[in-house]
Amino acid sequence: MIKQIQIQNFRSVRNLELELDNLNIVFGPNGCGKSNIYKAIQLLSAAANGNFSQFLSEEGGLENVMWSGQAALTSRAKKRMLLSCETTDYEYELQVGFPEPLVSMFNLDPKFKEEHIWLSGHRRRPSACVLQRKYSAAFLTNVNGEKSTYSKTIYENESVFGQLSDPHLYPEVSQVRESMRNWRFYHEFNISRHSALRIPQVGYRSPVLASDGSNLAAAFQTLVEIGGVKEMEEILDSAFPDCRFFVENERSRFTLLMQKRGLIRPLSTAELSDGTLRFLCLTVALLSPRPPAFIALNEPENSLHPQMLPALAKLIIEASRYTQIWLTSHSPVLAELIGKEIAFRFYELENNDGETKIREQNF
Ligand SMILES: Nc1ncnc2c1ncn2[C@@H]1O[C@H](COP(=O)(O)OP(=O)(O)OP(=O)(O)O)[C@@H](O)[C@H]1O
Ligand SMILES: [Mg+2]
Predict the structure, then answer these.
(1) Ligand nearest to the CA of 330
(2) Which atom of ligand 1 is nearest the CA belonging to 64?
(3) Which of 121, 196, 307, 344 is most solvent-facing, going by the fewest CB within 10 Å?
(4) CA gap 86, 158 in Å, rounded
């Protein structure tokens, strides 16, 4: 479980430390920094996946991403963005800064200045450090418990995680990597008219819904065949009381269908409403038969009618039995419905002079 996240100099966040519980709900007005925090957590996972640079470049590069408040007028060479997380087992921290100007055309790439992993509960003592990286030099604890300098090349634009050619020799580092790679993020499902989700898809077992929902039919059928179907049926019955959902297989191409009372034929995903598809995606994502350690949801209530909120609350409560949840929302009703059943940590944020601040931490 993630116990704490620290973010420095990432978009509107100058410096925030957030303690996390099993279920965390984040509120605040438009532009206060909710999605920025969501993305900062996503960046930690991107580092573990070896695509930190790509993710950052897609966000406009370090120049755009670095906090640009008044107090940020320090020299470019000294500016750093810091992300760290402390879990029950380990602490991971990365610090990136700007590359030297005019050395390369890849000026969106960040430069990893420091990267550390400590075993949890040792207050970052040097003896608990299993990875220490400065620029392109890395010092790691190997499978025999010995600390040694990594002899192969480490590129400065990416995390150490994706660059170890022999990860089995560094079991602690590999464990941390696997745990962070397993986090899942759901923001916007691609439900546009010609999206993959609306057309028949090749059916292969999919215990995890893709972040854009593109494998919805396959993930739905996986849930039906390998567990969780009872919970799914209950939730879909309460959200759509006069409908039944099932998958049709035509030469291994799967289509999710909805049979609605009063209609003489089932409707395919191409014909379903945006809100219905979003809710189906959330259901399949949150009831995954391979629950991840952590799921972040960014405004899942978007485009759902208020009468769907009890079913959404049920879904989140059910998922939180197996998974730690970070939920960004604009709906006090959703939080109240969840709060009737289980406890959660509540953060209300505000944007003060261009800086995201915690306004309240109770509900
Ligand atoms: N580099 C930066 N430095 C300072 N502030 C930034 C930077 N980049 C973006 N911002 C600010 O971050 C804010 C957007 O934050 P974010 O998208 O997290 O809002 P939100 O709370 O998710 O809002 P919404 O409810 O509308 O989705 C904007 O106000 C923008 O001005
Ligand atoms: Mg947002």
Answers:
(1) 1
(2) 1
(3) 307
(4) 21
